[in-house]
Amino acid sequence: MSWRTPFLTSLHSRDIREKSHDSFISAYTRLANRTSNPTTTSLTSDPTNPLAPDQQLITDLLEAQTSKGLLQSQLAAAQAEVVSLQGQIKALEKVAREKERLERRNVDLESEGRAKSRAIQVFAPPCLDQDVLVEGRGIGLIVVAMGRIYKTRC
After folding, report:
1. What phi, psi does 107 have (nearest 5°)?
2. pTM
3. Does 20 reside within a domain?
4. CB atoms within 10 A of CB 61
5. What are the pLDDT digits (tens) for 137-147?
6. Does residue 154 lie within any of the structural domains?
7. What pLDDT, in 10s, does the model give residues 19-60?
8. What is the number of domains present in the chain?
């Protein structure tokens, strides 16, 4: 039974301590209830009827909590927009890389086509028309004209 006496004494001292702060706890509870329900009218400072200091503190706290909530929602929206924009940036960078790759390939194919055209003009016999695609090796030539393949010697 020796443990009961200190335990009951500590509970009694705790109850006295908590009851001394009961006015603060109830004021904060009322403030929290008003903050959670924004449709109620808030306390306003009226020059003809000044608020008591504790009411002024409650009003200031309410305004601070309201502005904090608004700022937090704006921050969340801005962060979501940043994430969305970062995703769009990555997609645009991917498209730009693909565009550069295709442009390089186009340039390579154009230069290859010009080189083949020069080779055809150099090695083609004079009897071939310029509009005919020729692939030549040595003396025998393969001529592709109008979808048909011909072997020719000129």
Report:
1. -65, -45
2. 0.39
3. no
4. 15
5. 444 555 555 55
6. yes
7. 887 788 788 888 877 777 655 444 454 556 566 778 888 888
8. 1
